[in-house]
Design a protein that fits this description.
The protein is of the alpha/beta class and 345 residues long. It has eleven helices and 15 strands. 38% of the residues lie in helices and 22% in strands.
Length: 345
């Protein structure tokens, strides 16, 4: 392999890595170069969903501000049931939801976590009628990706340009392919439901433990979904650090292993359904670094009459969505309300 070809592969892989670090908070590395069969294999790993009637197509040259809806599915189908437990009844909800806003200059991004327990007004989705005061994560359950996109757009006033989805099994496999991640907790975590048992300190987690970490809510803090979101945001940072420290380009085998796991871990909207498309999109985001990413939780408050549910906190939530729509930074009024990491005393 020539030096020129090796540099080309390295440059493309780095760009793709930055793209998926933004979008799922699950950092992935895609490789579009190499032998033709490798390219074919990676492209055919990808699963897609046709959202052409829901998403607003971004500019052809990948310029301008963009919004990506990223969902973590809690489906128990297949290998997911063994990892997550629970009833395998064929349904799935959005266990994790993030709205990723990339600024117009493609130099920074904001990742907004939406608590799944938030009560929202869900718009009509095909044969599914509109409903008021229902949990946010039911949109994906009753109407799939299409209904999730419609609900997010109605709630935020933002138009979504792309969609990414990852399930339990895909997340665990990706973490294992990366060689695991390091997390630190200043207090013990003991959660029977997620199966996570960690003493205070720094730990290197494999895929199954990392999955338990991002699903934990009962073994630390007040047991709320808001606390779990903070653990998820800590995991995002940990995965970013792991990717940045890997010497992927000195090991083609390692590079392919991660690319294979990454492309097999996600479901994308059909416009991103190939390695070529993902790399082209990533090229427009090559100037966004991990330090340019701001993670926040959508402002919420306890629902009246139900301590186990949340409602959107106004005007702060409206200020957040308005700022992103105008391509401005997250307002101070929102940053001041951010919950603390329950694993950090």
């Amino acid at each position: 392999m020539s030096d020129k070809w090796a540099k080309l592969r390295g440059a493309r892989s780095r760009r793709a890595m930055r793209f998926l670090a933004l979008c799922t908070a699950v950092v992935v590395l895609l490789c579009g170069a190499g032998a033709g069969w490798v390219y074919w294999k990676l492209s055919h790993n990808l699963k897609t969903v046709d959202l052409s009637g829901e998403l607003t197509p971004p500019a052809q040259d990948a310029s301008g501000a963009m919004n990506i809806l990223v969902l973590g599915s809690d489906s128990r189908a297949g290998a997911n049931g063994q990892l997550a437990g629970g009833t395998t009844d064929g349904t799935a909800r959005s266990d994790t939801a993030m709205v990723v806003h990339v600024n117009e200059a493609h130099t920074a991004a904001t990742v907004v976590s939406v608590p799944r327990d938030t009560l929202v007004d869900r718009p009509a989705c095909g044969a599914v009628p509109a409903a008021s005061g229902v949990m946010f994560n039911t949109a994906f359950e009753v109407g799939g990706a299409s209904c999730a996109v419609r609900t997010v757009e109605a709630m935020t006033g933002l138009q979504m340009n792309h969609y990414l989805e990852v399930d339990f099994s895909g997340f665990a496999k990706l973490i294992d392919a990366l060689g695991g991640v390091d997390v630190t907790t200043t207090i013990p975590i003991d959660d029977v439901q997620s199966g996570l048992h960690l003493p205070a300190g720094t730990h290197h987690l494999g895929g199954d433990q990392a999955l338990a970490f991002v699903r934990t809510r009962h073994g630390v803090g007040d047991g709320s979904d808001l606390g779990r979101i903070q653990l998820q945001q800590e995991m995002v940072k940990s995965v970013l650090k792991q990717v940045e420290n890997l010497d992927l380009f000195s090991s083609p085998t390692k590079l392919f292993s991660i690319a294979d796991s990454a492309t097999g871990s996600v479901t994308t909207d059909s416009t991103l359904g190939s390695v070529h498309s993902l790399l082209g999109f990533a090229e427009g985001l090559q100037h966004v670094k991990s330090t340019d990413i701001t993670g926040v939780t959508m402002p919420t408050t306890t629902a009246p009459g139900d301590p186990n549910r949340l409602v959107t906190l106004r005007p702060q939530a409206d200020e957040l969505w308005s700022a992103l729509k105008a391509d401005r930074p997250v307002p101070a009024s929102v940053m001041e309300l951010q919950p603390k990491n329950p694993a950090d005393s």
